[in-house]
Write a structure and sequence with these properties.
The structure holds 2 protein chains of 2 kinds.
Chain A lengths: L2 H17 L8 H37 L2 E2 L8 E2 L3 H4 L8 H33 L5 H13 L2 H11 L5 H8 L16 H26 L3 H9 L4 H12 L1 H16 L3 H6 L2 H5 L6 H11 L3 H27 L13
Antiparallel strand pairs in A: 1-2
Chain B lengths: L1 H5 L15 H24 L4 H6 L11 H7 L2 H34 L5 H9 L10 H10 L6 H25 L3 H9 L4 H12 L1 H17 L2 H6 L8 H11 L4 H35 L1
The chains are: A mainly alpha, B mainly alpha.
Chain lengths: 333, 287
């Protein structure tokens, strides 16, 4: 808080104090008590719901993960860290290591492909031309569809005898056809493609917002100075988009670490169970929920939580720092 | 091209939007085609027979078949799932907005010890994915007898959406000048009266934003309903699409028709509320 801020708010208060009607007979203590009642009454429901349904599950996950447990009664079969590092622990299971690798592919792939692609499209759609808003609308469509419908849709298109392979054959690229969802070496890249199709629109929405905040005068000045369109983008626009890009990277990272829906719907359990198209989340639900290995499933949940939380804190510490003051750091500057 | 664009820049460029270059349109068309091509394929596929699709997966309907769509529309399950999705999304939205705006109001306009700590506490929810807690959350709901109930999906969805809602609403509510509050006090309103009669009506744009974000998130959510709602009578549309595609795996045309009908509410909603959805996402990030 700067000194000017303080003086402004002080003068504001100075006018306010004398005229605020203090009901006679109500003591200062009673008013303070009333204020606390209001604070508790208004924030209480949100605090309780958030604590019970968002944070406490994480604590329970840590506890359950130390046991071998079928899910009923209190867990009693204490196994320490066996579910993590033991002979049959998650880190010793090659299928889980595949899941980690797949999350890594999706995370890096999303950042490396969606970012530049969305930036290019956003720069294109930021130019003024007739019909621009219609194009914008179309580009955002994938983002509003549920991932389940998207998964089913691409599943049908990418079947062995589906239209994707037919179109490839018609284009004379028949040698490229494959079982996009069945070929164990290809399927994770197919998933990355579907996710890219789904989320690039989201990145474009964010980037266009960032672009709208850049004053036109800046671009006009650059144009007057003889900069080409591309030079203007390269040296003026993109640098000013820095904070938007970093926030998008953060959201994309958290999203990539919990990717579930598309993998669950568009790839078969058999392909997943071989490790080709699973993620931490699908592996967790397969083992914990479907196979009732609750202790083990919760260990996977904890691993997922720790990876996301550490990545988020590191990203915030080193990359986001200045971008989200007040939002994620809880500090207003 | 660049020269013709640059010259009239200073005069009335803001009023009349010009045609772009052919290259701009070409690129924009390619990008749009990639975005909605698959969606159109699904919609058109519903008008073909499974035989037509098998014979030529990438063809157009010939002849057009309406029976597949009418079969889906006359099935009660589609409408049932539509109602379930709507009910859950509406209740989630109401819950998020009410709890969120109350908490954000206190965090924005009360001065008290621990305020920033409380805000940080809520924002922790943005630092890890909701999926990480989904297994113990399911067990908790089961033990509370909330498995297989609407409430068992609604309350956790409200909880998941609260951090983002508070992050959006707090700066908005804090931005109103304190003179406004003082004026309300002069008129004899208490803090709550100020909140109810002055701040809430003025906050409508921000409330619409968070409401729409909550609605879309709930409408599309999959993992939580998948675990919590075992009873098919409670299934939402995403679950319904998945059920249909596994049960009728030979009936490609049927799956396409069901999927495209399931897309319709989201597409219609989006075409009406595009401004708010896009604005909401953008506002959330500027937060």
């Amino acid at each position: 808080m700067t000194t000017t801020d303080r003086s402004v708010s002080l003068t504001g208060r100075a006018h306010a104090r004398p005229v605020r009607p203090a009901p006679s007979g109500v003591s200062r203590a009673a008013r303070t008590r009333r204020k606390w009642y209001e604070i508790i009454g208004l924030t209480g429901p949100a605090l309780i719901v958030f604590t019970v349904f968002v944070l406490s599950p994480i604590v329970f996950a840590v506890y359950y993960s130390l046991y071998k447990w079928g899910g009923y009664g209190w867990p009693t079969d204490f196994r320490g860290l066996d579910n993590y590092f033991g002979e049959y622990g998650a880190f010793r299971d090659p299928i889980f290591r595949d899941a980690l690798r797949n999350n890594g592919i999706i995370l890096v792939g999303s950042l490396a492909i969606q970012g530049p692609l969305a930036l290019a499209i956003a720069l294109l759609l930021n130019r003024r031309f007739r019909g621009r808003s219609a194009f914008r609308l179309l580009v955002f469509v994938p983002y509003v569809l549920s991932q389940v419908t998207i998964g089913i849709m691409w599943q049908l298109i990418l079947l062995r005898a589906g239209s994707a392979n037919v179109i490839l054959t018609d284009l004379g690229l028949g040698s490229l056809t494959t079982g996009w969802l069945a070929n164990l070496h290809v399927v994770i890249w197919t998933m990355l493609f579907i996710l890219t199709w789904t989320y690039t629109g989201f990145a474009i929405i964010l980037f266009l917002a960032g672009l709208a905040n850049i004053p036109d005068e800046l671009m006009e000045a650059a144009a007057i100075d003889g900069a080409s369109w591309w030079q203007t983008q390269r040296h003026v626009t993109i640098p000013m988009l820095g904070s938007t890009i970093r926030i998008w990277m953060f959201l994309s990272m958290i999203g990539s670490l919990q990717v579930f829906d598309v993998l669950w719907v568009a790839s078969t359990p058999a392909v997943r169970s071989l490790g080709a198209s699973n993620s931490m989340a699908t592996y967790m639900v397969d083992h914990g929920f479907n196979q009732r290995e609750w202790g083990y499933g919760n260990a996977v949940a904890v691993i997922m939580f720790v990876i996301s939380f550490v990545a988020a804190l590191l990203f915030q510490r080193f990359v986001l720092r200045r971008d989200v003051d007040g939002a994620l750091t809880g500090r207003k500057s | 091209m660049a020269a013709t664009v640059a010259l009239p820049n200073t005069t009335n460029e803001r009023r009349t939007v010009k045609w772009g270059s052919p290259l701009t349109y070409f690129l924009a068309l390619v990008v749009s085609a990639i975005s909605i091509g698959p969606v159109i394929y699904v919609i058109l596929g519903g008008f073909r027979t499974t035989g037509q699709i098998a014979a030529n997966p990438a063809g157009l309907p010939h002849p057009w078949v309406w029976s597949t769509y009418s079969n889906v529309v006359t099935q009660p399950r589609f409408w049932h799932e539509l109602v379930n999705s709507t009910l859950i999304a509406v209740c989630t939205t109401l819950g998020v907005v009410v709890l969120g705006v109350c908490a954000a109001f206190v965090l924005a306009r009360y001065r008290f010890r621990g305020r920033e700590a409380m805000y940080t506490y809520f924002t922790v929810g943005l630092l890890f994915p909701a999926a990480a807690g989904i297994l113990p959350l399911y067990l908790l709901l089961r033990d509370l007898s909330l498995a297989n109930t609407y409430v068992g999906v609604i309350i956790p969805q409200v909880a998941f959406q609260l951090p983002l809602t508070i992050v959006i609403l707090r700066p908005f509510l804090a931005a109103f000048p304190s003179e406004l509050e003082d004026a309300a006090f002069l008129d004899g309103a208490g803090r709550l009266g100020f909140f109810w009669r002055v701040l809430l009506p003025l906050s409508r744009p921000a409330l619409v934003t968070v409401a729409i974000l909550a609605f879309v998130t709930s409408w599309n959510s999959f993992l939580l309903p998948l675990l919590v709602l075992q009873d098919e009578n409670l299934h939402t549309l995403p679950l319904g699409v998945l059920n249909f595609s596994t049960e009728h795996s030979q009936d490609t045309a049927g799956i396409l028709a069901f999927t495209s009908l399931a897309m319709m509410p989201a597409l219609l909603f989006f075409s009406f509320a595009e401004r708010q959805i896009v604005g909401g996402i953008q506002g959330a990030v500027k937060g």
